[in-house]
Structure formats: C-alpha cells, structure tokens
Amino acid sequence: MFESLGNKLQDILDRVGKERQLTEAQVKAAMREIRMALLEADVNFGVAKDFVAKVSEKAVGQSVEGSLTAGQTVVKLVHDELIETLGGKTIQPELRSEGNVWFMVGLQGAGKTTSTGKLAAHYKSKGRRVLLVAADTQRPAARDQLEVLAKQVGVPVLKVADGESPAETKRRVDEHLKTDFRDLVIVDTAGRLQIDEALMDQLADLQATMQPTESLLVVDAMTGQEALNVAQTFDQRVNVTGLIITKMDGDARGGAALSARSVTGKPIYFAGTSEKIAGLDAFHPDRVAGRILG
Ligand code: GDP
C-alpha cells in the first residue's frame, strides 16, 4: 500500500533509535512529504496545513511496531487520520417513512442533474416512491435534461415554469402529492457557472418555502482547490446537510472531497463514478484516503 510514499519516507526516516519511537525531527521531515502528497492530490493548501499539524502532534513519540519501519508507521498514521477526516465510515442519509424532500445544490456542470437521476434510480430500486422536481427557473434545457433522466428511470417529474415563484412550486408539488403518493421528493435546483448572490438568494428562498429535509451539495472532484470555496459558500448560505462528490472516475485524486468535508464538517454520502445512471457509489473514506496518498 502507498508504495511510492512509503519508500520515500523510508529513505528519509531510515533509522529508529533503540527506543523505537518517532522523533520530532523525523516527523518534521516526513510531514514535508505528506504535505506535498496532499497538495499533489489537490487538497486545499490551508486544509493540508491543518491536517499535517494535527498528524504531527500524534506522530511525535509514536512507537514503531515490531515489523513496521518508521516510514510505514507514519504512512499508517496519516492514512488513519485521513479516513477519520473523511468521515470514518460509509454514511447514508437518513430517510423517514415519508415526507422526505431533498434539495440538490451546486455549481452548473458539477453533476447535479445527473446525480438527481442517479439518486432516483438508487432509491427506486430500494422501493422508494420518488418524485423529481426540475426547479431551474432560468434554464429550460436543464429541466428537459431531468425529464429525460426521469423517463429513463421511470419516475414522475414536475417541471417548474420560467420564473415561477417558490410558493407556486411548493403548491404544485403539494398538489401532485395529493393524488400520487411519493415518499421522496428530489429537487434539482438551478446552478450557475460561478457562485453569485442572485443564485444564493433564489436558493435560500426556495429552501425557506419548501423546507427540505436534506440539502445535498454536489461537488465536482475535478475542481481541486476551488472545492473549498464552493463548499464554504454554499454551506454558509443554504446550510448544506451532506455532500456528493462527482467524477471520481476521472484523474482527480480526491483532494476536493477532503477539502469540502473539512470545511463544512458535513458527511459525504455518495461518489459519482460515471456518466451513467448506475454510476453512483456509497462514499468509502478508506478507499479515497488511499487514493489521496497515491
Ligand atoms: P449540472 O449542471 O450540475 O446539473 O451537471 P450535469 O448533471 O449536467 O453534469 C455535467 C456533466 O458532467 C455531464 O456531461 C455529465 O454527464 C457529467 N457527469 C456528472 N457526474 C459524473 C460522474 O460522476 N462521472 C463522470 N465521468 N461524468 C459525470
């Protein structure tokens, strides 16, 4: 595991003394390499710095177990801490027996609409009755895209009209539910290429009106350093309850996941693993920790 990093550290930390404990100098040298590895994986600079400081504290004086080298000991410590920071274990959103309303939020292109379709398929296969709401009041193309996905999955979709008010959208959803019982309503909200105030105000309005039980922020793994900014801004304005990291099938090593999770403290529920409807996996902190270390 983590051959290259392990070897590099082994060269630096060749010897442990008779006490078989990591010294401060060794930890310092190792952490330079760890910080580099994190930055190469596109972890935000500040997040990497804080992470390294936390691990350093634990590492100094740590005993090196019988069969392990000093390098392996450090790698294990870092790996364990990464898993912890990424959430420890796989977590899934809680579902009530009915009345679940989930908002999908994020920048345009992050994979919101695709992930909405994926979630619909996933929960339909678990016996949930899903209704999709295409709530992008500005872009008819985005609504059409969700309609195509809804057909593919075999769930109903309610499309908002251009410029429709949040109150009207809520009224139409409530109306729909009176004649067609659905226990999970997933609302695909409008995205912008960049965070802007108008988008945030509009989202906050819709959220105040519809009172979602979850607001899931969709973050593109390829956005690297920018992921921290996006996660922080959305969380401050619309109180994110969980994260979905998309495009984990690409080259990205997963630094965006660590940054978004660290800055919001919110659980990462799912990872997008392809463009297809089935390309949604539960998020596994251990696998992503391994990938970040390279
Ligand atoms: P939205 O603007 O946030 O709704 O983004 P879309 O859902 O339209 O996705 C933008 C692009 O990313 C599309 O070409 C999707 O097929 C692609 N995409 C979304 N999720 C994934 C993923 O997990 N893996 C890959 N490879 N592509 C994805």
From TrEMBL:
<comment type="similarity">
    <text>Belongs to the GTP-binding SRP family. SRP54 subfamily.</text>
</comment>
<feature type="binding site">
    <location>
        <begin position="246"/>
        <end position="249"/>
    </location>
    <ligand>
        <name>GTP</name>
    </ligand>
</feature>
<keyword id="KW-0378">Hydrolase</keyword>
<keyword id="KW-0694">RNA-binding</keyword>
<keyword id="KW-0687">Ribonucleoprotein</keyword>
<comment type="function">
    <text>Involved in targeting and insertion of nascent membrane proteins into the cytoplasmic membrane. Binds to the hydrophobic signal sequence of the ribosome-nascent chain (RNC) as it emerges from the ribosomes. The SRP-RNC complex is then targeted to the cytoplasmic membrane where it interacts with the SRP receptor FtsY.</text>
</comment>
<dbReference type="GO" id="GO:0003924">
    <property type="term" value="F:GTPase activity"/>
</dbReference>
<keyword id="KW-0342">GTP-binding</keyword>
<dbReference type="GO" id="GO:0005525">
    <property type="term" value="F:GTP binding"/>
</dbReference>
<keyword id="KW-0733">Signal recognition particle</keyword>
<comment type="subunit">
    <text>Part of the signal recognition particle protein translocation system, which is composed of SRP and FtsY.</text>
</comment>
<feature type="domain" description="SRP54-type proteins GTP-binding">
    <location>
        <begin position="267"/>
        <end position="280"/>
    </location>
</feature>
<protein>
    <recommendedName>
        <fullName>Signal recognition particle protein</fullName>
        <ecNumber>3.6.5.4</ecNumber>
    </recommendedName>
</protein>
<feature type="binding site">
    <location>
        <begin position="106"/>
        <end position="113"/>
    </location>
    <ligand>
        <name>GTP</name>
    </ligand>
</feature>
<keyword id="KW-0547">Nucleotide-binding</keyword>
<keyword id="KW-0963">Cytoplasm</keyword>
<dbReference type="GO" id="GO:0006614">
    <property type="term" value="P:SRP-dependent cotranslational protein targeting to membrane"/>
</dbReference>
<dbReference type="GO" id="GO:0008312">
    <property type="term" value="F:7S RNA binding"/>
</dbReference>
<feature type="binding site">
    <location>
        <begin position="188"/>
        <end position="192"/>
    </location>
    <ligand>
        <name>GTP</name>
    </ligand>
</feature>
<dbReference type="GO" id="GO:0048500">
    <property type="term" value="C:signal recognition particle"/>
</dbReference>
